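Consider this one:
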Amino acid sequence: MIRLTVHDLRLVADGLILLDDIRLEARPGAIHLVVGPSGSGKTLLGRTLAGFEPDANGEMYLDGRDVIDVPPARRRVGWVPKANSLWPALSVYSNVEFGLKSQKISRQERRTRVSEALGWFGADSLKERRADSLSLLESRRVALARSLIVDPQILILDDPLADLAPEESEMLRDNIARVQSDQRLTTMIFTVDPHPWWSVVDRISLLDLGKVIQTGTAAEVLQRPNSIRSASYFGSCNLLIGEIEAVGQAGEVLVRLPIGQLVGKLASPSEILEKGSPVRVLIRPEAIALGTTPLGGSQTNRVPVRLDEILFEGPLRRIRMSAPGDQVLELIGTSTVVSGMAVGSTSTALIPADQVSVIAY
């Protein structure tokens, strides 16, 4: 298993900074997700890591070996672009076999390895088909098999689920996760939509305008955003303005807000905040519950609220609530959250302290 480490990666073209101060670490044998909006630099970063952007500067280590100046053919990175880039007039077999032909491997062994690689993705029956006759899902499977047949040190996938139907997306996601786990292959996946990947990723980096603005586990990035930009990428977020009352030694803080005092966690523990420092407080609507019983696992903040609006969103409900200080809080949960309650009801909003993200103003 291979560890990928990137330090101070930078790419400038025609005087424009396209990638700036990129720092990443993909752990051995794990999936690292890089998410960001269109135009954030995801594909460009993937191409840079694969070696297709020779003007990049910085450091990129594969198990301690700096490969920033190593050309793609010698970098041993499996790169699968969103467009797949299969040769349309060639058969599936010829497309997948191509990477082996320069390795002086016998025809029989090539045949065996092609069937094995296609079998990983349930595509062995396609090997006689022309690439231009394949569906989008089939071509993605073939492209994945082609990238793995050459035994890459690391696999980089550019939005592999893009434009697939929901059932196809789930099927290919599970297929990729199973093969990645079986092969214990360090994998980076670049995508605009993190939701299909929550259950299988080790860590997530959020890319915005060519910069990594947050990295952490899925829970850390989702529940404790370190900026308004990070928070807004994953949906709506409650934003409150307050000031520090007290700071603990483990990054916990007591914040005074219009809704009352809340205990929370510093999003960036290295930040130096003192009593009286102005702060922004971010709380995901999914983190809030209603009731009177404390939530398990952490200290629970309690805020009295009145339900002003209950919106039906399929299996979920979006609840807008009035809180002290003329503040509005939003909660997202299943229908059981408001079972037996109606607009105008009063209740207590329960907010886990470890999901109250506090950032400098």
